[in-house]
């Protein structure tokens, strides 16, 4: 069944009631754009601008807290820790730091316990405020820790990667990986605020930037072909880290995700379309071992596999698939999927894809393109999926 996005008249955070809205004054000389996530008492703003980490005004309006715990990783802390310290200076009496190892392979229960160890050893109470400073792994684990500690404490997302700014920091999906499946253990827990500092992208390795562009690209085929046309015209500028191009891309992605999350917070239907390319991509990540390919690299190749499956089901034409392939390639992403098993590669993919949150009674459900700019969630015959895998995977 098709899952169209409706466009309700937007309301201000103040009009939505419940949680007191966070105010984000623009620091002097800094342009700040704001996108609102409309979820009633769980509503919150996303601030987008350059230099926001070090600006105290970026964190104005947050509730008082007995202490703050900043969760980051060993790569991000030396790069952006000082800026956040400046932004939080004088605001909280106690600021504790938890520095996790860096990498998808550490998105585990053992690493999650390092956050709980810090919370408990510092006698943190229900008024403690957590900050997630880092990419998607840090954000997912910090949010999950916040959802679980004392059955729920508040947290703030401070994403420092493009992937996190346009996707994982927004919408309240938190969790960890399990050896048998990616993101299969988690909870929905919305942040109080998301602060996207575009300046943090200056330190992002080129491979990480390309991985983030996969999550940017997906919004075009599933919802906004005008945005896809814009990406085709501005891909070189994005890869060159043009600040205006990045600001537009982050804002548009957040706007689309805000529309979807406002209508389907708990992913009971519509929100599943945001997983375009992820069913194949998650199989790649788990099958190769977490960390071998970046999440966005799996999504990039996975989108092409999902588009090819859509073509073979008669939903899109070959020209659309070729157009998407060119865009993915221009983003610096792989266009051929990896071989997971030389003896039965398709069988191994199917095995991993059955461990997917969209699966129902063992039936794999894919996010497909039902005509450009329109997504649909549906199943497909295993035989056809095998053909797609065989056609899209790199030779052994």
Written description of the protein model:
The protein is of the alpha/beta class and about 400 residues long. The protein folds into two domains: about 15-205, Rossmann fold (3-Layer(aba) Sandwich), CATH 3.40.50; about 270-390, Dehydroquinate synthase-like - alpha domain (Dehydroquinate synthase-like, alpha domain). It has 14 helices and eleven strands. The longest helix is centred in the middle third of the chain and has 21 residues, at about 245-265. The two termini are about 35 Å apart. About 50% of the residues are buried.
Q: Could you name the ranges where pLDDT drops below 50 across 5 or more consecutive residues?
A: 1-21, 25-29
H-E order: HEEEHEHEHEHEEEHHHHHHHHEEH
The amount of beta strand, in percent, is 15-25%
Number of strands: 11
How many separate domains make up the residues? 2
CATH domain topology of the largest domain: Rossmann fold
User: Major sheet: size, sense and barrel closure?
Assistant: 7 strands, mixed
C-alpha geometry: globular
Mean pLDDT: 91
* Tally of individual helices: 14
What level of helicity do the residues show?
Answer: 40-55%
Question: What topology does this entry show?
Answer:
Layout: H1 13-16, E1 33-37, E2 44-49, E3 68-73, H2 76-88, E4 95-100, H3 109-121, E5 129-134, H4 136-148, E6 155-159, H5 162-168, E7 173-178, E8 181-188, E9 193-197, H6 206-217, H7 219-223, H8 225-239, H9 243-263, H10 278-288, H11 295-312, H12 318-330, H13 345-353, E10 365-369, E11 375-379, H14 382-392
């Amino acid at each position: 069944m098709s899952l169209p996005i409706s466009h309700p008249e937007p309301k201000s955070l103040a009009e939505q009631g419940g949680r007191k809205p966070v105010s984000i004054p623009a620091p002097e000389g800094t342009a700040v754009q704001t996108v609102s996530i409309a979820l009633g008492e769980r509503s919150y703003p996303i601030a987008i601008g350059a230099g926001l980490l070090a600006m105290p005004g970026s964190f104005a309006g947050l509730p008082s807290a007995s202490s703050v715990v900043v969760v980051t990783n060993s790569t991000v802390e030396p790069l952006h820790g000082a800026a956040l310290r400046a932004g939080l200076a004088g605001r909280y009496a106690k600021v504790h730091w938890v520095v996790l190892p860096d990498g998808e392979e550490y998105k585990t229960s053992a690493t999650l316990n390092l956050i709980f160890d810090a919370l408990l050893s510092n006698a943190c109470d229900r008024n403690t405020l957590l900050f997630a400073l880092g990419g998607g792994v840090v954000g997912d684990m910090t949010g999950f820790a916040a959802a679980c500690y004392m059955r729920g404490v508040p947290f703030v997302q401070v994403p420092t990667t493009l992937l996190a700014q346009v996707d994982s920091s927004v919408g309240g999906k938190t969790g960890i990986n399990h050896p048998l499946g990616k993101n299969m253990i988690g909870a929905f827990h919305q942040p109080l605020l998301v602060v996207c500092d575009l300046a943090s992208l200056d330190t992002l390795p080129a491979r990480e930037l390309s991985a983030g562009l996969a999550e940017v690209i997906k919004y075009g085929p599933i919802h906004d072909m005008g945005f896809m046309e814009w990406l085709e015209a501005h891909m070189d500028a994005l890869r060159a880290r043009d600040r205006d191009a990045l600001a537009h891309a982050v804002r548009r992605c957040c706007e689309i995700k805000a529309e979807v999350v406002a209508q389907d917070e708990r992913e009971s239907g519509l929100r599943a379309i945001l997983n375009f390319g992820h069913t194949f991509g998650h199989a790649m990540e788990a099958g190769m071992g977490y960390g071998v390919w970046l999440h966005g690299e799996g999504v990039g190749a996975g989108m092409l596999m999902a588009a090819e499956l859509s073509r073979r089901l008669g939903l899109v034409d070959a020209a659309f698939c070729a157009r998407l392939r060119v865009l993915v390639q221009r983003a610096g992403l792989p266009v051929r999927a990896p071989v997971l098993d030389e003896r039965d590669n398709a069988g191994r993919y199917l095995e991993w894809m059955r461990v997917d949150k969209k699966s129902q009674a063992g039936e794999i459900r894919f996010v497909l393109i039902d005509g450009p700019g329109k997504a649909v969630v549906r199943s497909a015959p295993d035989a056809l999926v095998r053909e797609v895998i065989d056609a899209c995977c790199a030779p052994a």
